[in-house]
Amino acid sequence: MSALSPLSLRAFTSAPRSSKARTPAASPRFTARMAGLFYLLMILAGGMAVFARRGLIVAGDAAATATNLMTYPTRWQLTVAGELLVVAW
Questions:
Q1: pTM of this prediction?
Q2: What is the rounded distance in angstroms from the CA atom of residue 38 to the CA atom of residue 85?
Q3: How far apart are CA 14 and CA 38, in angstroms?
Q4: Structural contact between residues 81 and 47, judged by C-beta atoms closer than 8 angstroms
Q5: By C-alpha distance, which of 2, 4, 30, 7 is closest to 17?
Q6: Helix 28-53 to helix 73-88 angle, to the nearest 10 degrees?
Q7: Of residues 68, 40, 64, 38, the one with CA closest to residue 53
Q8: Which conformational region is residue 60 in: left (phi greater than 0), alpha (psi within -120 to 50 degrees), or beta?
Q9: Where on the phi/psi map is residue 3: left (φ > 0), alpha (ψ -120 to 50), or beta?
Q10: Which pLDDT tens digit goes with each residue over 33-77?
Q11: CB burial class (10 A; 0-12, 13-18, 19+) of residue 78?
């Protein structure tokens, strides 16, 4: 069993002494534009989900809904993906 000196342990447990470097902060304009972009993507994803779901779900008829879901699985997947994107953002 070898003993490590306190100096060698410090290299693994503490931050470097020159950690005074700061990360640059994003400008408020950039932050606002990114927020606007994500809101636009959220609106588009929600619209895609609503449009893809149209006609797939038949109110009061589970058999017709199941038939539609098996016939058009890609539309159902787009619906689920769009709604997940809206909820995730």
A1: 0.58
A2: 11
A3: 37
A4: no
A5: 7
A6: 150
A7: 68
A8: left
A9: beta
A10: 999 999 999 999 999 899 888 889 999 999 999 999 999 999 999
A11: middle
- DSSP letter for each residue of 66-85: HHHHHH-HHHHHHHHHHHHH
Q: How far apart are the first and last CA of the chain?
A: 52
Q: What angle do CA 49, 53, 55 make, to 5 degrees?
A: 155
Sequence-distant (≥ 6) Cβ neighbours of residue 47 within 8 angstroms = 82
Which residues, 6+ apart, have CB-to-CB distance to 75 below 8 Å?
52, 53, 56
pLDDT tens-digit readout, 65-88: 999 999 999 999 999 999 998 888
CA 56, 57, 58, 62 dihedral sign is positive
Extents of the domains making up the chain: 42-89
Q: Which two tokens stand for residue 49?
A: 């989900």
* 6 half-sphere exposure, CB direction, 13 A CA radius: 0
